[in-house]
Amino acid sequence: VLDEPTAVLTTKEVTKLFELLKKLKERGVAVIYISHRLEEIFELADHITVLKDGELVDTVKGDAIDEEQLVHMMIGRDLETFFPTRDTSIGEVILKAEHLKAGHMVKDVSFDVRAGEVLGLSGLVGAGRTEAVRAMLGIDPLDGGTVELDGKRIKLRSARDAFKHKISLLPEDRKHQGVLLEMPIKHNVTLTCLNNFSRAGCMNLKKEKEYVDRFSEEVGIKAASLDNNVNSLSGGNQQKVALAKLLAGESRVLILDEPTRGVDVGSKTEIFKLINAMVEKNFAVIMISSEMTEIIGMCDRAVVLREGKSVGELQKDELTEINIIKYAMGVTDDEIKQKK
Fold first, then answer.
1. What is the C-alpha to C-alpha distance for residues 75 and 96, in angstroms, rounded to an integer?
2. Is 84 within the bounds of a domain?
3. SS3 of the chain: helix, strand, coil, percent, to 5
4. What is the enclosing helix (H) or strand (E) of 333?
5. pLDDT tens-digit profile of 224-254?
6. What is the pLDDT of residues 319-331, one digit of tens each?
7. Has residue 220 been placed in a domain?
């Protein structure tokens, strides 16, 4: 039984894993493969079982269904509505980073993000996307480069310092860095805004409840009680708790690192709607994702990284898998055709 085995693997490691699984199958080994990545399911599975809300939807042969039909079984709607549309007006540049350098992973990374915009950071695993953002925020040492907020140069020394400048990060590692699993949902949500209802060490519990109810409802947390610990929730709802915490902190710039990792297809769409709602309120959003379809479906613009450097920028009408791959791998159109 393999549960999301490729979540932290590189493309090369995934290929090796799939080769191994196919050899095991030929030897008569039965494999149960759990994944939210549809392309993996279609490549490996002879039979596909779909579960929704804890109940069996159906079991079908892998060659008897296509991606659109499978998505419909999983979320009850068609693939065309998977990435919700939004109505925004992109404003001025809020955050700008130039020629960032950090350790051996970040060699020369530049990007900017505007109010009302979703900027994608794309690239292969190990390209330096997460490392560049962490160094920019002062979480890890920044060896070179500049950061500007509203046209003024700043130097961020920690995540706390970034938060004071209204810049927040949703970390890639949700369970260890995004939420406190052993704490109640309500206390997680208000971690970033305790000053709003505490004075001289005393908490205004009524005002705290108002904050918890407001932001929990805003992100759509599904829980029997907000007094329950976060570890009682599904992956999708844990991610919503992390997002509620950022929203409660009243940030202007949100950096979302793999926001849908380990989340079911239905919850992904809900998270996409939340991102749209943030952008429509004039937030600037930076979205790091290893899923090219997410970059294409959600971003107004994307910067592609390769080997620690920003190597290309793609506007909305240029965002295709082929264009992303060209920059991410450093290959030409002819080379891509040959690989096919």
1. 37
2. no
3. 40, 25, 35
4. helix 333-339
5. 899 999 999 988 889 899 988 888 888 899 9
6. 988 899 889 888 7
7. yes
Distance CA 269, CA 219 (A): 12
- Claim to verify: residue 97 and residue 72 sit in the same structural domain: no
Q: For residues 170 and 238, is the Cβ–Cβ distance under 8 A?
A: no
Burial 248-277 (b: 16+ CB within 10 A, else e): bbebbbbbbbbbbbbbbbbbbbbbbebbbe
- Nearest to residue 75, comparing CAs of 273, 292, 320? 273
Domain count, the chain: 2
**Is 147 buried (19+), middle (13-18) or exposed (0-12) by CB count in 10 A?**
buried
**Percent of the chain scored above 70 by pLDDT?**
95
End position of a domain, from candidates 79, 112, 144: 79
Pair 83, 260: CB distance under 8 Å: no
Residue at 35 is within a domain: yes
Distance in angstroms (rounded) separating the CA atoms of residues 269 and 279: 15
Q: What is the pLDDT of residue 340?
A: 47
Angle at 67 between CA 238 and CA 74, to 5 degrees: 40
- In terms of residue numbers, what domain contains 9? 2-79
Residue scoring higher pLDDT (204 or 312): 312
pLDDT at 81 (0 to 100): 62
In this predicted model, what pLDDT tens digit does every residue of 249-258 receive, in sequence order? 888 999 999 9
d(CA 322, CA 258): 21
- pTM (2 d.p.): 0.76
Nearest residue to 195 via CA among 186, 185, 207, 178: 207
